[in-house]
Write a structure and sequence with these properties.
Strand order of the largest sheet of chain B: 1-2
Largest sheet of chain B: 2 strands, antiparallel
CATH class of the largest domain in chain B: Mainly Alpha
Shape of chain A: globular
Distance between the termini of chain A: 7 Å
CATH architecture of the largest domain in chain B: Orthogonal Bundle
Radius of gyration of chain B: 22 Å
Structural class of chain A: mainly beta
Structural class of chain B: mainly alpha
Shape of chain B: elongated
CATH topology of the largest domain in chain B: Vanadium-containing Chloroperoxidase, domain 2
Oligomer: heterodimer
Amino acid sequence: MIRAFGLCLLALPAVAQEVPRFVEETASAGLTHSYSGDWEYMVGGGVAVFDCTGDDRPEVFMAGGAAPAGFWRNDSPTGGALTLTVQTSGLELTGVTGAYPLDVDSDGITDLALLRVGEDVLMRGLGDCRFQRANEAWGFDGGDAWSTAFAATWETGQEFPTLAIGTYIDRTQEAFPWGNCTDNHLHRPAGRGYGTRVPLTPSYCTLSLLFTDWNASGRKSLRVSNDREYYKGGQEQMWHLPTGDAPRLYTEAEGWKRLRIWGMGIASTDLNADGYPEFYLTSMADHKLQTLVAPAPGTTPDYSDVAWARGVTAHRPFVGDDPRPSTGWHAQFADVNNDTRADLFVAKGNVWDMPDFALADPNNLLLQGPDGVFVEVADKAGTASMQPSRGAAVVDLNADGALDLVVVNRNAPAQVWRNAGPVGNWVRLALSQPGPNPTAIGAFVEVQSGDRRQRHEVTVGGGHASGIWGPQHFGLGAADKAQVRVIWPDGHISGWQEVTANQTVVVDR
Amino acid sequence: MNRRSFVGFGGAALAGLALPRPALAAADPAPVLRNWYRLVLELVRHTATYSPPVASRAFGYLGVAAWEALASCRTDTVSLAGQLTGLTALPTCDPALAYDPSAILNATLSRAVAAFFGNTGPTGQRAMQAMARQMGSGLDALPADVLARSESHGQAIAEHIIAWSMTDGGAVVENMGFPMEYVLTDGPAHWVPTSLIRQQQTPLLPDWHKNRPFALPAGNTCALPPPPAYSEAAGSAFHAEAMEVYTTSRSLTEEQKTIARFWSDDPMLSPTPPGHWVEIVLQIIDRDRLDALRSADIMARLGVAMADAFIGCWQAKFAHDLLRPVTYIHRVIDPKWEPLLITPPFPEYPSGHSTLSGAAATVLTATFGADFAFADATHEADGLAARSFPSFWAAAEEAAISRLYGGIHFRAAIDRGLDQGRCIGDHAVRLRTLA
């Protein structure tokens, strides 16, 4: 069943491949914030974006590092100037490195997982954008580590989601921190709460996690991106997640190939809608874009790197006079001009005065062309910030169908841009199913418009310490209608249904 | 024969033969030396600029600095000033005053490591500060004037070494050593990029051979004959070398794979090849409880030999500018072949690890003897088991052949590389350290 939600806007003219103009509205929007702190906060700096007022305009939460985190109610008028108002939410903890919104207890109210230097905290949404600590109520062991990554999935038959939390360095090791990565953990549910957390050993200083059905098997695996700066004997990882059984690593015998990068963020999307997502891995110097060598049932996790061929190595600043290699953090695929092709945003910024890497390192905005090659447009679009960026979200803040941009910077002011277009038509799809996991995390959403098919995996996790909770956004180009279908988390496939462009639609199971 | 330099350096004999200045404190400098070197190995691994040639340069200067720090207040040792190119006389101790060797060494290494690893990231900076504090805390019991005087002297030695290093041509490394522009040599025999990494489309440090050597008279002092003439004809010497790489790679034993990975020593994922040899020496120092003076002597010679090895090797690499096996094999034999190891981004002939290992084995054999057995646990933390060797040359030869198993070098580069290393190492062996 399809339900329209919110206002149906006038169709915008489709202007494929035109570069949208982003207008920075940080000051006028009322956003004053900085992710700050010393060594323990050189990574992290996440933003969580979710609607807790029910007006289809998501609110913004930002990690503060050593300073308190901040929450902003979104009062932006439709299509108008961005307007963010600081509001006390209960989320204003110190030590927060990142945050991911999700509905842990399936009560229809968004909760938050706060990653921290110290104890991680699950914050239960109470409604009206108020939150309270729920570690004890849900039996969640927040540990005492330097947490830097998060992902969630619903395993079959469970009332609560399975959570994965990635951690970084043993912060007590001052002179020899290298080789001292602390354990990541898997928090599996036990009824309406959590049992004893399971260490994901070995762990290699993780900066991004993502549950994904990478091989269209109907089962989720856990991809782990690790920072080679600190591990010994480590590599990128992927875990099997067998129901009721202990997680186990994919092995070389299964086709997993060793890759060792400064793994900092994972973005994924199915660039060619073949049912097998591509994975973009941020790093230092060259970034990676992985596509399966043999995308077919029963395939092995053997990926080739097509970053250069697709124009997304993003290995050094594309503007300015700093020739040194880049440092990439958050990455997100999103169709910023609504031309039906996923574009790519990459947050960039020096770790902390590292002379071997660019200090003036602009964020990337790479538009995907009809040939699948991405072209840098951040300078033309106005988003090429030189601040030391970390987390980010590409998300529609003013409900006009044009994806806006919010970026967290380390020891520098956060920034927000309004996408002033031009953009094509669009549709946003919110999934709804009865019982646990009401928003169908783990589903695939397919949209067909003309000869273009798009496919999103609905995930919680990835990026760099940053998450978005809300409908799936699809650009439609010139099309004023589209066919949509959902492959629900249990494998049930809904029939194709027609939707009208330029509105948010609820797809009921 | 330089081994005579070490007579009397064994721990018990030190007090009798060495002639320290008055009132030298009894604190053992050996832990200072070992701990700083352990940190340096981590910094090499975790500082992006530190490709193997750059690492070798740091080991050269740090070894000389450590030696000068420990030798400068003694009457039974000889400075390397005047023996190493461009190294002028270093600050000396006042014979009437007391100094503490641990404090001198800690001050020297604190300053020198900070200078040579100024490019390291925030974690490395933090670790260097922590190490300086930890090593310094052991000196609190010294009289204040002795401590201050010793630290001042140690810092002065470091500054002298740093100033010397700034004029060698290798002090500034941009873009992790990859030039922004580079013109490839025309012709099928010559190197072309082998990597899909955008940064590595120019060769690493093509001007490194122009750096001032330490003990080697010139970068081309140990120049090599050319490799077999390039040919794509079956039966030619060049084709035969490529076929050896190809066929070997397709039938690697588990032991050969282990050897290839053990000596892979990838930059940023290991202490690099020169760091591997330093790590071997550190293990021997620990095992045999070598005193600080002897340890510093070894580190100075080894560092000098390895730094010169990369200068000499790079001179040959860019003089001959030979293509890598993966390029030739894709072109002539099998377009889908892939080597076990990642092909390094610079010309093939000779093998850097072979030249380096030949130089290291030459120095260490002169120091410890031809049949000195040891175990090498360098990569245990990375999950690679220790390997045992009956001699340094056995280890060097295994390091060299590992490049063929890894599919990144032809036979000639390995054999001639070892020859070149032997030639270069001899210059470090001839350095005088004892009066």
